[in-house]
# Entry
Amino acid sequence: MEILYFALDYFELVLFLVLLSIGFFVGRILEQKHFKSIRQRERESKNILVFAARFPPNLAQPQDCTLVCGQVVISSDYFKQFVAGLRSLVGGRFRGYESLFDRARREAVLRMKDEARNKGYKMIVNVRFETTSLTGGRQGALPSFEVVAYGTAVRPR
# Structure
């Protein structure tokens, strides 16, 4: 009978630890899968050049240009939020969120490159990034944010 009371007393703790472990492993697998997809698509789109410079390299030649952008909304998982909560008590880098921002930035650039490729452009200049928090600091909400990459796609006439 005492074992039953002991098990009931710690059931919530055990359930929390099991769910936290599942969240860690599933989140890690999905993140690795997304990074693999990003690396493959980056290899496929390496012929589209991206520059932060304001003007294209060859201004003497007339060029067509258009605005292209890539946008992604990405959210954290409960495990990263839990670890970030612990990290905020002692301070330091939020490595889990750093990888989240890296994925979002790279995905936004890839989507911008896809738009340029679909329109027949091979170069993007004056690339800029904008980020927006979608949770607005609401208590209990999972951190999610939007990253927008935009630039001017150019090609010789």
Remarks:
- Residues 2-156 form a domain with the Translation Initiation Factor IF3 fold (CATH 3.30.110.70).
- The chain has one domain: 2-156.
- The chain has three helices and four strands.
